[in-house]
Automatic annotation (TrEMBL):
Pfam families: F-box-like. This is F-box domain-containing protein. Transmembrane segments: none annotated. Residues 1-45 form the F-box domain.
Length: 76
């Protein structure tokens, strides 16, 4: 029996026991394998982000968009 004739459930059962690194490699084999492995790869997705507060570092009040008093130049 050729591999492409295997039931999708069989692939899913196999891939559920494979490491994330190997799943990533398997997802590159074919469109079908990608469709099976991607949900397994991203079943626990954690997104972390941070917003740098460059406005305050540059002397601006982020909430009002106004220059901070310490950043004003006198006589210019």
């Amino acid at each position: 029996m050729p591999v492409h004739n295997f039931p999708v459930e069989l692939f899913y059962a196999i891939f559920a026991r494979v490491s994330k690194q190997d799943l990533a490699s398997c997802s590159l084999v074919s469109w079908l394998w990608q469709q099976i492995t991607l949900p397994l790869l991203f079943e626990k997705l954690c997104i972390r982000y941070s917003v740098p507060n460059e406005a305050i570092e540059e002397g601006y009040e982020a909430s009002e968009g106004k220059a901070h008093p310490s950043s004003r130049r006198e006589g210019l």
